[in-house]
Automatic annotation (TrEMBL):
It comes from Nocardioides alpinus. This is Antibiotic biosynthesis monooxygenase. It comes from the Bacteria.
Amino acid sequence: MLGLTVRWSLTEAPDGVEEQLATYIAETSHARFTGMAGLRFKTWRMVPGQWFEGCYVFASTEARAEFERTFTAGAAESPGAQIIGSPPILIEACDIVAVAEGWDGFEALR
């Protein structure tokens, strides 16, 4: 599977940024990526005070390349960068070796 990781540092982000990110995801970003063509799934991960990350899994090389190209071109102006106050520190294509769904299944939002 074809992955892409986008990570921001939160070490110098303003106070309350974690709550702002969670609100943005719940109110806007989750809906934007739900049902997106070429995307298998996206997860949002965060270690408060350290980093915030989007992890994408794409259905094709073309879908990943197009998203990476357009995202990278506007990364400094992306909603995440605007909320955090800085551009991503990492945009990295990767391979996803496997995904297992546990007994309790996936949960869309916390």
